[in-house]
Amino acid sequence: MQDETLALDGRSRINLALAGLLLVMAVVTGGSSQQAGTGVMLLQLASLPAIAWVIGQRLAMQGGRWPPLWTALILALLAIPLLQLLPMPAGFVMSDGRALLQQDLAQVGVALPARWTLAPDATRASFFALLPAVAIFGLVFFLPSGAQRALLWGIVALAMASLLLGILQLGAPQESALNPYPQWQPAMSGFFANPNHQATLLVIAATLVSAPLVSALKTTAGPGARRRGVTIAISVFVLLMAMTALPLTGSRAGVILCVLACALVVGLHGAGSRGANRRRLLLLASTVAVSLGLFAALRWMQVDAVDELRSPLRAATVDIAMGHAPAGSGMGSYVGVFEQEAPPAMLMGSYVNHAHNEYVQWLLEAGLPALLVMALGACALAWSARAIWRLPAHRRSAALPAFVALLAVLGHSFVDYPLRTPALLAVMAALAAIVAKAAHAAGTTPAARRSHTLPIKAP
């Protein structure tokens, strides 16, 4: 891996540097889903030349193409807010929710926005919020596998830096410069406004180090013993720090997802072990861990349904979404629409910023197009999983943990809103690019398609 990383050509070095810069900017400045300051604006501006650079590389490609499903998913995500900003035909009312809102506004002499979205400024901001993720996806996709693995270690380093900042915040006053969001009490949040999102990044880091840890433990002989020892030490340190800190963030979902994700990586990565006994042991251990995690998840869902506001909040959001079907209320319009149409029992002294379920909120804001995009994303993930599994174990060492980390964040999105933060959206884009690149290679290279049936020689 070291030789491959050092042997990067000039274009790959630029891609790695730009991707790393955008990821650092996103994590350091984009930890809030509501507050977009100067750092996020600079991030979005920096993504524009990066996207132009990616398009230039794509046009210079000799033959081949990007994975069609992932390409269609990106284009569909960008198209939704742009379509919602189009003018609406005069007198055309597309939903009952919009008609009722129009009647209410007419009583005070206010006209409804003459666009498909009820919140044009928020929808425009939602489009620009996607640009850094698009740039990172393109940059990482063009990286060779060695550079992609180096980038994964960079994401792990960012997670540890955020954790260190969170530890320091606990001993500092609320108005300290260590707290990037002084309006909130320090709570192990690190670069994030919400400690649950700090937990999400820790889950990603723990998942990513599980695969190299298993690889290092499987290889007991041959050159590189010192390097394997360093990998084991760093991976164990990251896992211990993540497992220790996750309960302190207050995220029950983070703890459960971390156990599930790490066990899944160990089990799947261990399936490539040469020894049958070792393979059975790894699979057994991962199965037990996954079973315990699923049991804990079921218990946690019962607590969530009884003791928290999230379950009725999601139900109310679904009811409102049905009133704005099929086109949705507009990207970024959730706060205003929910306050307008929430049932009396949901009216509180503080406003509801998100539905705490990405998929339900997408349904409200984008309607039927959101369902189509989610189905397209599920197809892209299913195709990628099948293609990656056809690769030999050593060639999916980066894609496998990246794929499982994607699933963990998507799972967390059922009870939270991690993808509403620029930081985690950027990290997800990098993980998705690694998955898409590996799946694309497995599907386009004849040797890759046959390699799963051939024995793997020892290095």
Automatic annotation (TrEMBL):
InterPro entries reported in the protein's UniProt record: O-antigen_ligase-rel_domated, WaaL-like
Main localization of the protein described in the UniProt heading:
membrane
Q: Provide the O-antigen ligase-related domain boundaries.
A: 238-374
Print the keywords alphabetically: Membrane, Transmembrane, Transmembrane helix
| UniProt keyword annotation of Transmembrane helix present | yes
**Organism domain of life:** Bacteria
**Mode of membrane association:** Multi-pass membrane protein
Coiled-coil spans are: none
Transmembrane residues, as ranges? 12-30, 36-56, 68-86, 125-143, 150-172, 199-217, 229-248, 254-272, 281-301, 366-385, 397-415, 421-440
Tell me where it resides.
Membrane
Which Pfam families does UniProt cross-reference here? Answer: Wzy_C
- Is DNA repair found in the keyword set? no
Q: Output this protein's name.
A: O-antigen ligase-related domain-containing protein
